[in-house]
Write the structure tokens for this entry.
Amino acid sequence: MLAGRWRRAVAAVVTAAALSVSGIAGVSAANAAAQGPGFGTWPSSSIGWEGGVVAPDGSIAYCFEPGHSNPTGSTTDGGVQGALTSTTPFGSNTVTGDTLARINRVVTEYGQSWDNVQASAVSFVVKHLANPEAMYRSSGWNGSRDLNGFINWKLVRTVGSATVSAIQSRAQEILSATEGTTAGAAGAGTGSVSFSIDPANNYDGTATVRLSPASAIASVDLVNGVFVDTGTSSMAGLRDGQNVRVRGVPPSDDGSGYRISATGRADVTSGFAGNVRVWRTSGQQGVAGPGERAGGGFAIAGEDAADRSVTFQPVVTTLTGRITPDGKLVDTLTFATAPDAGGLDNRWPTKSDGTAFEVAFEVTAYGPLAAAPALSDDPPPGAPEVATVAVLSGPEGPAASAVAEFAGLVPGGIYTFVATYDAEATPAPTRAFIADDYAWRHGFGMADETTVVPMDLDLSSQIGSSTVPLSGPSTDTVIVENRGVWLEREGAPIGVTLRGDYLYVPAKEDGSAPAPSDVLPPGARVVATRYLEVDAPGAYEIDDPPIAVASGAGYMTWRWSLQRADQPAETADWVREEFEQYVDPTQTQEILQPEISTKAQAGTVPDDTASDTAIVGGTLPANGAVVTFEAFDVPTEAPEDLADVCVEENLVFSDADTGQTITQPGEYPGPEMTTSTYAKTLWVESLWSVPVDGEEPELIARGQCGILQETTFTVDVTTQIRTAGSAAKVEVGDTIWDTSETRGWVPEGGRHEYHVFAWQGSTPVCDDTTLIGTVESTHGTLEGGLYPDDQPLVEESEPLVVPASARGGSIGFIEHLVDESGRTISKGECGDDTETARVAGLPLAATGGGDVPLWVPVAGGAALAVGVSVVIAGALRRRARSDEG
């Protein structure tokens, strides 16, 4: 590309120099030719230059005398010559006529390019046509007239096979394209332009060109018109008999008629003349540049035979009504033109500045109507009228619509629009284009000018009760009001489907209901949906009340809506969608809940039973509930949080497969569980819904795992009364105390208490009348935990002095193991042999042989300050279980 620019620059310099010296083009002047586009070696070599030469006039010329060196000396313009003689060491050849016209065409059409491949191809083609004998004998070629082979011979070592192939292809294309070229002759002719006017639109028509000779080509300019294909008043390249579309452009804005006229020139073009411009350099090759084109020219003209009319008839083609979001009725007008009685339908006129003339219309809206009106020329008497609005078309004319807006809100119903041409309001310049007697109006009730404003129904409702139990039915009454007319179809009011969604809404953290909202509250869900079919305003009660959720605290709420998706397809657009708010207070019910707690059996002994009791209060579900119990043993290495104990691997009892169905609040004992080992057992009670229709039961409430009041301790306590001194008897003033051994799970934070009673007579009496005191264990508060058989928890009570009131009677202890809440886990029995002693003052009752004496001395281990203890009465005895809850 850089080389090309350099070459063009050289050509410009050479041309400028030539003009400077000669003063006029074409006068013989001596200047050196310059290298042009192409391939080879410049100025000379065994390969030579296969390309163009920049002649002194700036054109690109081509060598035609193979065998001579390239023209690098002083070059002289030989002028345009009608015979080209190629003189070479291999013979001379002269070409004229069609062959020379072909060379002229090749050099002119293809040779003026700075493309190296194309210029090289032209170089070979020119010599091939001017002197083929000399070309195919030059450069050591074998003389065969093989153009492709000769090109390859000359250049393959210089430019490579790919470029050679491109040059070969282009040379063959040029030869094919120029084959049949004939030398043209000069001459003149005659012609005309005639016009036709479209009777349906006088702006439109055609122009027909007539030329003789038929080979002539014309260029035409219009007055008061444009060519449709070009959009301008000029068009070139027109041939004989050609019809082209034209459009009139009135010369004034006053509405008067006008005519289109045409002037132009036709040129007779027969192709290329049989000549070329020849440039000569002494002793070197001559070069041939572009010659002359053949032909001549003559003038043509024409005009409309009659005036073109500009009269038009404006109309409104469509009226599209709609309701705005704020409830206003608007109508969109689309403008057009209509043919007159004779079929003339001129376009909408435009002013000299390109804008359209304005036309005024009146638009009257009628409604609301319950049904689509019948078509008529005039509005029927009594037709409700909304208003009349004036509309003026804009500068875009029919290319833009206009909007008629009717102030104020309109109720639902059917509305129809009637548009009328308003001659008085139409500007005077526009009326010049419209017939004085022109009148136009749409008919009343035309389908295209009728629209439906959706019915605007107002929904409200009232629930039957502000509360509902779980699984309880809910009734609701919907009140439908209409702000307009109730639309009709086929003579009857249309049916409207109302949708009622019955939703569960969780309570907020404080237990209250969420505020009313247009957005579904978090966690809310639709439980049931009911539909109502209505065809008039009124109050409608649902006849199939839905059921509240089976579980969950919170609220049930109705939300009624009117949705197009629920309506029949043919009337879906006839209603405006309406939605109540979620959680409207008049639609919301608090869900009444049951309350459940338990009192588990506090303690038991191995190989016995334990149970839990559910205490159910509050409001039960409408169809009752099922109570179940589960028991979990705390593992030896208990987690810090007992709530983690109640998992499957620690489960020791469950009646989940059966349960108890209840319908009233109350206390419900659970099944008894057999104990087998020492344990700390955690009870969990659950309240379930009664499933219906094959549904699974739902959990309503579940107790908390690890609560002390819901814990049973399995323990085994043995006791033994003791006294200080060596005598195997108890007298007033002696010190006595009780001892206990506890095996099993001892409650953390619990304690042992020992209640002391004194009574007279042979029947033990342990009540408030015989209670002489309560002493604590010297161990104090218990750490708790599991104590196995071989490592029992051993405790002693605080010592007690036998009071004088006990003389001659009996004194006895009752041991109590209590947890930190005060529940009794284990309790001794009144008058137990190991816990009772006779007090001296009455003779001992002796029995016959084999009876065990009342006083049996046993060595003890209690290290009291009062001395050595003596075991009184019989062997240690296991305590019974405690049924206290």
The first helix runs from residue 2 to 22. The radius of gyration is 61 Å. The first strand starts at residue 30 and ends at 32.
